[in-house]
Design a protein that fits this description.
The chain is 33% helix and 25% strand. Strand 6 (131-134) and strand 7 form a beta hairpin. The strands form four sheets. The protein has a five-stranded antiparallel β-sheet with strand order 4-5-10-6-7. It is globular. It is built from eleven helices and 14 strands. The chain is an alpha+beta fold and 264 residues long. It folds into two domains: 5-50, Uridine Diphospho-n-acetylenolpyruvylglucosamine Reductase, domain 2; 59-263, Uridine Diphospho-n-acetylenolpyruvylglucosamine Reductase, domain 3 (2-Layer Sandwich), CATH 3.30.465.
């Protein structure tokens, strides 16, 4: 690691002040991505701002929505009875992230802020039509994810919570790398009163994206057979040592049908 200053503020205002006043300062949530990056000397922050004392964890039900604090750990999302009952797809997704050690340290807010193109949470938040709350505003999921490792967050802006509407049905399926457990292709599907939203992670060169053609077909008929014959072009999909773009295009159809079958 390179040398850096470490701060652990006790209030959100203090954390925002440090991060906003120093372009080279970086926030530390669960650290499951950031700490390895530091160890490999891929980032050289002037100051690391630990967010663990800001009181941003917890899960509450507010009418037809579930609100999850940004520092809530994956393990807590997976085991929460309200999420298991109301958004089972999200509980399952959280239970499949990394390994047990990662799930007890990693946080939802940290994952969303990092927006890794193979991370699981972005597909859920996008398919559920969630809202990301920060210290200064609310950002719709459709506006939040802006490309690989890129979000709408501004310098010094901190995610405080995530608000998710409760869908009629939900499910998550992923074809995962057996070593890292990251999604080679992951699909989250959510059926809402207004229609179906289906988001894909792990496959797109620009990160998470919605499959609008499948959404239209599933809104008319929420069944795996509804997406028979829908072909995903491989042009904008990832191609690497784990899977070619053509194989990922094929997997999108397979994994989507599995997710719909589970939800239905």
């Amino acid at each position: 690691m390179y040398d850096f200053t470490y701060q652990k503020p006790g209030s959100l205002a203090d954390a925002v002040k440090v991060l906003s006043g120093d372009m080279e300062a970086k926030a530390l949530a669960g650290g499951q991505t950031f700490i390895p990056v530091l160890k490999q000397r891929l980032n050289k922050p002037s100051t690391v701002v630990d967010l663990s004392k800001l009181g941003l964890s917890g899960i509450t039900v507010a009418g037809d929505k579930i609100v999850i604090g940004a520092m809530t750990r994956h393990a807590d999302v997976a085991s929460n009875p309200d999420i298991q009952a109301k958004i089972p797809g999200l509980a399952y997704l959280a239970s499949m992230i990394g390994d047990e050690a990662v799930r007890h340290r990693g946080t939802m807010g940290g994952s969303l802020a990092n927006n890794d193109p193979a991370a699981c949470y972005p597909s859920a938040i996008l398919a559920l039509g969630g809202t990301i709350k920060t210290d200064r505003r609310s950002i719709a999921a459709d506006d939040f994810f802006q490309g690989m490792f890129t979000t709408a967050l501004e310098q010094g802006e901190i995610i405080t919570s995530i608000e998710l509407p409760v869908p009629q049905k939900s499910a998550y399926e992923k074809f995962r790398n057996p070593a890292s457990r990251y999604a080679i292709v992951g699909v989250f599907v959510a059926k809402h009163a207004s229609g179906v939203r289906l988001a894909i992670t792990g496959a797109g060169q620009g990160g998470v994206f919605r499959h609008t053609e499948m959404e239209k077909a599933l809104s008319a008929n929420f069944a795996p057979a509804a997406i028979d014959g829908i072909v995903t072009p491989p042009d904008d999909l990832n191609s690497d040592i784990h899977a070619s773009s053509e194989y990922r295009a094929h997997l999108i159809g397979v994994v989507s049908k599995r997710a719909v079958a589970k939800a239905a």
